[in-house]
Structures are given as C-alpha cells and as structure tokens.
C-alpha cells in the first residue's frame, strides 16, 4: 500500500510548538510519509533555530528562506515558492497550523493545485477583522478540507460560516501536547537566577500585536501601566523584534530604563520561557498562544487586548481580557500581587494527546480514500 504523502508547513514562532507535536505523532505512524517545510517567515536564532533545537523538531526537508516584509510581499513570495514545491513533490495532503501569513499562503496554493489541506487550530475567531491573523484564519478555514479544533467555540464559528460539519474534528490542543512534553525539561532552566527573580515573586510581560505596539499612543499607555506594576512586583519583559523596533522608532526606550524593577531581555527560547511562565505570579500578554499555555499551567493571565479568539481560556481557564487601559491593567495586577487568584480548570481534551487524535483522523481518511479509489478501479 502506498504511504500518505504529507507536507507539513511552518513559518513563524508560534507554529513551531504546534508542529513539533504533530510531526512526532506522524513519524510514529507507519502509513505516513511526513516531510517538513519551513517558509522562513521567521528566520533568526532567537525566533526560529532555537525552537527547532529545543523541541527536537526534525531539520526542515525544504526551507524557502522568505524572511520579513509587508503582508502582500511576504504572502506573495511564500506562494510563488511554495507552488514550485507542490508541483514538484505532489503531496497528498498539506498540513498548516495557526494563523500566520505562511498558513494562508500555503493553504491557498495547495487547494488551487488540487491538494487537500488540513488546518490545525481551526475556527478560532476574535471577530476583529483589523487583526491580520483573523483574516488568515477565516480564509484558511474556508478552503481547508479537514479542520482540527481546540475548543467548542471553534466548531460553532465554523458552522456559522457554512463549513460542513463532517470536515470538523475536535481533537484538543497540540500546543499543550508540546507544553506537557517539555515541562520537566524546562524545570532545569536557570532563567530565574539569570534574571534575579524568585518563584512566584515576579510577573511576565510579552507584547507584539500591531494594535498594541505599532501605535505610539497604545504602546505609551501600556508602558505607563508597566511603570506602576513594576513598583509592586518585578516584571520580566522579553522583547519581540517588532516591539523592539517600535520602541526605538517612538523614542520610548529611555522610559524602560527608568523602571528599576523591570528585567528586559531579547526573545527567549521555549524552555526558558516555559520555566518563566510556570513560576510567574501572573503573566500579561497580547499573544494568543500564551493565553492557552497559562490556562494549561493554571497561572493567572491578563490579556492586553479588547478581545480573544480563545474564549475557553476565560470561561474555563485563568485568563482575563483587560484591554489596554492603563488603570485597569494596574488594578487587575494589584489584585494578583495581593494574592487574589483566578480560578480555572484545564479545558476538555487539553491533555497532551491532541496530535495522536489528529493522526488517527488522518489515517482514517487515508484508509477511506484508498478503499474508495480501489472501488473506483473495479467499477
Ligand atoms: C508574526 C505573525 C503573528 C505571530 C508572530 C509571533 C503574521 C501575520 N503574524 O508576527 O501572528 O503571533 O509572528 O512572533 O504572520 N523579525 C526578526 N527575526 C525573525 C523574524 C522577524 O527580527 O526571525 C523581525 C522582522 O524583521 C520584523 C518583526 O520582527 O521587523 C516582525 O516580524 P513579522 O514576521 O513581520 O511579524 P510578527 O509581528 O512577528
């Protein structure tokens, strides 16, 4: 029997922890011939290579080397190069994860070449179309053949958009598979002593959303809140390259230097960051993935956005959406510093086995299509 030829796609940092679990499960499946393509949307040591090393993701079979650029330019370059790969390699299935530009670019190319597409982390919606990721999510889901979801809101969003229920599979969260698989290893990280912070005696901040960091006004507001929070508790702030650029461009870097309890670093590796999150008193973030990881760890999270596409982290988990109003951020932080907790439980199927479920669905689909094509041959 011929093996199912699967081309897995990654491009940017939040994709790596998802594909690590998916690739590992696929490699255990004898009927699969799984390869990995990296578009190179993220490319440097801190944003890409370190994650491959730490998560033991196989070296990509194909690297497109696309790099940064405006949305049209970056998406277009990925499409041009990815189409050549699809034409040459003729995969049976392309697997895309998350919501970055690489996700929509490769899904669009594959579907137009008649190749089936599976979307891992389908159906999440912020209902905020100014977010580039929201556009990527909506479009990818519309053209995917298999939609793997992490929470029940995703399925209702997809059904509302007219997606056929038969394509939707609730499998859980592959990013949490990776988190559980690495928690023990992360325990060995010495990042706390490197940053001179003690367990449960610091907070963590991450920022990179265009809505927060590309606006001088919004970024200044968050820094104003940060100035107050760090007076109460040390805050670790690993700065994303986009935010680094904007802080320089807006002349806001001196403000950071005025905060004695702020610990600034560059982007951290997966294991160091996991250690930081799991030992933090609380986390402030605008990242989607971190909202989920803190919920899985039971660590309070304040989301510095007006909405979330991951509502289960609020209804079941430890997440609170607080927007970017300085007063609210400071008030909520003070409550957490004072020992108030955000009760939460781990959402359904966030159990470390999501990628196994994905592989089982794919194996079932492939058995079905093999028996159908055999049947076609006979008739
Ligand atoms: C992208 C994703 C976003 C994801 C985020 C995680 C899209 C639309 N956005 O946003 O969903 O949450 O990644 O990081 O796909 N840079 C480096 N080194 C790198 C990569 C980028 O220095 O390896 C710099 C770029 O030069 C650029 C900035 O970081 O100035 C932003 O990178 P970009 O890929 O444009 O978008 P992100 O904001 O990272």
Characterise this structure.
With 379 residues, this protein is an alpha/beta fold. The protein has 2 domains: 4-172 and 350-378, 3-Layer(aba) Sandwich (Rossmann fold), CATH 3.40.50.2000; 182-337, Glycogen Phosphorylase B (Rossmann fold, 3-Layer(aba) Sandwich), CATH 3.40.50.2000. Helix content is 50%, strand content 15%. It has helices at residues 13-27, 45-54, 71-89, 101-112, 132-143, 152-160, 174-186, 191-194, 210-213, 216-232, 241-249, 253-257, 270-279, 288-297, 312-315, 326-337, 354-378; strands at residues 4-10, 32-38, 62-63, 93-97, 116-120, 146-149, 168-170, 203-206, 235-238, 262-265, 282-285, 301-303, 319-321. The strands form 2 sheets. The chain has a 7-stranded parallel sheet, sandwiched between helices. A 6-stranded parallel sheet has the order 10-9-8-11-12-13, sandwiched between helices. Strand 1 (4-10), helix 1 (13-27) and strand 2 (32-38) form a beta-alpha-beta unit. The two termini are 20 Å apart. Residues 12-14, 41-44, 47-48, 68, 99-101, 132-133, 208, 240-242, 245 line the site of uridine-diphosphate-N-acetylglucosamine.
